[in-house]
Amino acid sequence: MKTVFPYELLSGDVTLRVERLFVDNKPIRLERINDRAQVVALEDLEETNRGWSEIRLNVSVTADATELAAGPWETPQCIAVLTNRRTNLYQAFPLHPQSDGTWLGDVELRREEHVSRSQLAAKIVATVDGVEGRLIGGSEAPWDVDFEAKVPAAERSVKMRWVDFTEHDHLKEYRDDPWLLDSEAGDPLLLLNSSVDGLRGVLENAATAEQKLVREIMASQVASEAWSAMFNTAVYACEIVDGEPQWPGGWHEDVLQRMIPDLYPDLSPEEALVELVQARSQGENGGDLQRRLMHGAGVQSRKPRKVSSALRDLRRMASKRETQ
Questions:
Q1: pLDDT for 78-129, tens place per residue?
Q2: CA-to-CA separations, 226 to 183, 209, 290, in angstroms, rounded
Q3: What segment(s) does the record annotate as region Disordered (predicted)?
Q4: Local structure of residue 47 (DSSP, 8 states)
Q5: Considering only CA atoms, which of 170, 171, 79, 177 is closest in space to residue 126?
Q6: In this predicted model, what pLDDT tens digit does every residue of 35-46 receive, in sequence order?
Q7: Sequence-distant (≥ 6) Cβ neighbours of residue 172 within 8 angstroms
Q8: What is the DSSP code (8-state) at residue 30?
Q9: From CA 120, how far away is CA 102, in angstroms rounded?
Q10: From CA 246, how far away is CA 242, in angstroms rounded?
C-alpha cells in the first residue's frame, strides 16, 4: 500500500539507465538493451559463453542536481536495488556520485540467484532531520532483466482511440463517460470520448504548468481504471480444468502475471491464481480483493507518485505566487 513519509521527497524525475552489459567480463552488443522499454534481454547468452556465471550491468542514475542541493537533506546517496520474486532475492549496490546529480556503478547478477525475470530499480537516500538512510526518491519504474527474452521488447501495451460516443449506437448510453475499455474483441482497446468537452485538449495539448498537472493526474486515473478493468476481465477468463485453475493465455495472462505480485506479494503466482479463482467461483466477499486491486492498479499506472508530485508542485506554485 502507499507509504506516507513525514518529510519532503524529491519531486523531480530520477532516471535509471543501463549503459553496458557484460557476461563474465565480456561485453555484449547493445541490442540486448532497450532503454525506452527498460528491458535487458538475456536468453541464449550461450552464444557468448555457454557456462556463464555472472552478468554485470553498468548503470547510471540521474536526478535534478538543483533540487538535490536545495532540499532539506544531507549527503544524498544512491543505490541500485536488484530483486527477483521467484528466488526472494534482494540486493543493494552502492553507486558512485559524479557531478550534476549523477551516480555511476555496476550491478552484478550471479546465475544461480535469478529465475525468469529480475527487476532493477534506483533509490536515493539521505540524512533527514539527523536520521541517516531515509528514502527521498527513486526511479519511477523498474527495469526488467529478462532471462527468457531474446529481444528487449516492451510488454504488451493497451491501444487507445478517440471516439465520439454520441455517434455510435453501442456507446450512446455511455455518452457522459470520459473513457471506456473495450475488451470484447481481441486485445483490449481504450476508448477516449472525444465528445466530452475539454478532455482531448487537456490530454493532448496542455500548455501551462497547471494544465500539465491536471493532465498527469487525469492520465494516471485513466490508466488506473484501465488496469482494474483488464484485471477483472482476465480473472473471469480463467478456466478450471480437473479442479485446477488454468492461466488464460494471451493478454489476459499478461495482465495477471504483471499485477498478481503487487496484489499478493507473499504468494507465488500459481498460489495467487488459485485464491483469485476460488474467490470468484465461490462468490466470496470481494472487499479484500478490490482493496488489493486498487493498490495494484495504482502501481501499474504510477498514480500515487504522480498525484503526490502534482500536489507538491501545486504547493510550490502557490508559495511562489504569495512571495511575488
A1: 999 999 877 888 999 999 999 889 999 999 999 888 877 888 999 999 999 9
A2: 10, 26, 14
A3: 294-324
A4: G
A5: 79
A6: 877 888 887 665
A7: 165, 166
A8: G
A9: 17
A10: 10
